[in-house]
Specification:
Layout (H helix, E strand, L loop, with lengths): L9 H19 L3 H19 L5 H26 L5 H16 L7 H7 L3 H8 L1 H12 L4 H20 L7 H22 L3 H22 L5 H6 L4 H14 L8 H14 L2 H26 L20 H42 L14
Helix pairs in contact: 1-2, 1-7, 2-3, 2-7, 3-4, 3-5, 4-7, 4-8, 5-9, 6-10, 8-9, 8-14, 9-10, 9-13, 9-14, 10-12, 10-13, 10-15, 12-14, 12-15
Catalytic activity: a ubiquinone + NADH + 5 H(+)(in) = a ubiquinol + NAD(+) + 4 H(+)(out)
GO molecular function, one term: NADH dehydrogenase (ubiquinone) activity
Keywords: Electron transport, Membrane, Mitochondrion, Mitochondrion inner membrane, NAD, Respiratory chain, Translocase, Transmembrane, Transmembrane helix, Transport, Ubiquinone
Length: 373
C-alpha cells in the first residue's frame, strides 16, 4: 500500500519532512555540491512516498523517476569536473541537467508517464514541491549564451509540447502533466527577464493546480469518463469549472494575473516571438479545460432538493478544502489587479510629468514628489 493511502503514517510524515528539508537545502545552498546533496536528499525521500509493493504502476513510476533524476544528478557531477577546463561547456551541461530534472521539453517524455502511475496527492507534490529546487537553481545560473539559449529553446518547446500533447488525452493526470509542461514555459521565460516574476507565477500555479487535483481526488476521477459518471453538487461543479478556467489563464481569474504580468514584461524585453508561441499554446491548452468543463456540466445531479450537501460533498474531506482554495484563488485577482494598475498608472503619470518639466526647463519644487514609486 502506498504511503499516501495510510492516514497519519509516521513514515509518511518523516519522509515528507526530509523531502522539504532537501528542497530548502538546495535553495539556500551557496555551492553546487551542497545543492546536489539537497537534490539527492529530496530524491531519496520522494521515492518511498510513491513506491508500492502491491501495485505495479507506482513502482514503475518510482523506478522511472529515480533513473531520470539519477541521470540529471550524474550530469551535474560531470559538469563540476569540467568547470576549470571547459567552463562554458559546464554551464551548458548544468542547464540541460536541471531542465531534465524539471521535465521541460524536449526532456519531457518521462513526466506524463510518471504522473500516470501516481495518486492525486503524490501528483500534487510532483507538480509543485519537486519543481522548486531545480527552478531556483536555474534562476541562480549566470545568464550567458550557453545558459540563455537552452532555457529559451526549452521554453518554446515546452509551450508547443504542452499544448499539442494533451489534445487527445483521456487521462486527467496526463492532461495536468502536459498543462504543467506548458506553464513551465512561462516560468522559464520569466527567469530570462526578471528574477522574481517566476515566483509569483509559480505560487499561483501551485495554488490552482493543487485545488484542481484535490477536486479530482474528492470525486475519485482519474479519467475523462469518470467526470461524466460522477455525482457532485452544483456548487462543486461551478467552482471546479471556474478553477479550470483559471488554470487555463482565462481573464479575470487568478490564473490570468501572472500571464498578464509576463505579457507586459515580454513586450518590454522584446520577446515577441516567444510571446506569440506562448499565447497560441495557451489558447490550445484552454481547449483542454473547456472540454473538461463541458463534461462536468453534462453530469446529471441526482438530488433534486436543496440541502446542506449542496455546499460540500458528503463523502470526502478534500471537497471543502478544494472549494475553499478555489474560492480564494478566484477572489484574489481583483485585489491584485487593482493594486498593480494603480501602481503602474501612477508611475507612468509621474514619469510623464517629469519629462514635460524637463522639456520646459522647469525645476520641480519638490523632487521627492515626482519620484516614481
Amino acid at each position: 500500500m502506498s504511503l499516501f493511502l495510510m492516514p497519519f503514517s509516521p513514515y509518511k510524515i518523516s519522509f515528507l519532512l526530509t523531502l522539504v528539508s532537501g528542497t530548502l537545502l538546495s535553495i539556500s545552498s551557496s555551492s553546487w555540491f551542497t545543492a546536489w546533496i539537497g537534490l539527492e536528499l529530496n530524491l531519496m525521500s520522494f521515492i518511498p512516498l510513491i513506491s508500492s509493493k502491491k501495485n505495479q504502476l507506482p513502482t514503475e513510476a518510482s523506478l522511472k523517476y529515480f533513473l531520470i533524476q539519477a541521470l540529471g544528478s550524474a550530469i551535474i557531477i560531470l559538469s563540476s569536473t569540467l568547470t576549470l577546463l571547459y567552463p562554458q561547456l559546464a554551464l551548458l551541461l548544468v542547464s540541460l541537467a536541471l531542465l531534465l530534472k524539471l521535465g521541460a521539453a524536449p526532456f519531457h517524455s518521462w513526466f506524463p508517464q510518471v504522473m500516470e502511475g501516481l495518486s492525486w496527492l503524490q501528483a500534487i507534490i510532483l507538480m509543485t514541491i519537486q519543481k522548486l529546487a531545480p527552478m531556483f537553481l536555474i534562476s541562480y545560473l549566470s545568464m550567458s549564451f550557453y545558459t540563455h539559449t537552452p532555457i529559451f529553446l526549452a521554453a518554446v518547446f515546452s509551450a508547443t509540447v504542452g499544448a499539442l500533447g494533451g489534445i487527445n488525452q483521456t487521462s486527467l493526470r496526463k492532461i495536468l502533466s502536459y498543462s504543467s509542461i506548458n506553464h513551465m514555459s512561462w516560468m522559464l521565460i520569466a527567469m530570462l527577464i526578471n528574477e522574481t516574476s517566476w515566483m509569483i507565477y509559480f505560487f499561483l500555479y501551485a495554488l490552482i493546480t493543487s485545488s484542481v487535483a484535490l477536486y479530482f481526488l474528492s470525486i475519485q476521477s482519474y479519467f475523462f469518463f469518470h467526470l461524466i459518471n460522477s455525482n457532485t453538487t452544483p456548487l462543486t461543479k461551478m467552482i471546479s469549472i471556474l478553477s479550470l478556467f483559471s488554470l487555463g489563464g482565462m481573464p479575470p481569474f487568478s490564473g490570468f494575473i501572472p500571464k498578464w504580468i509576463m505579457i507586459q514584461e515580454m513586450i518590454s524585453a522584446g520577446f515577441f516571438f516567444a510571446l506569440l508561441i506562448l499565447l497560441l499554446s495557451s489558447l490550445v491548452t484552454l481547449y483542454f479545460y473547456i472540454r473538461l468543463s463541458l463534461a462536468s456540466i453534462s453530469i446529471s445531479y441526482a438530488q433534486s432538493k436543496w440541502s446542506l450537501t449542496f455546499f460540500f460533498h458528503p463523502t470526502s474531506i478534500y471537497s471543502p478544502l478544494s472549494s475553499m482554495m478555489n474560492l480564494f484563488g478566484l477572489l484574489m485577482p481583483s485585489a491584485l489587479l487593482i493594486m498593480w494598475d494603480f501602481k503602474f498608472i501612477k508611475t507612468n503619470i509621474l514619469q510623464s510629468c517629469q519629462k514635460k518639466l524637463n522639456l520646459l526647463n522647469l525645476e520641480p519644487t519638490n523632487k521627492k514628489a515626482f519620484a516614481p514609486i
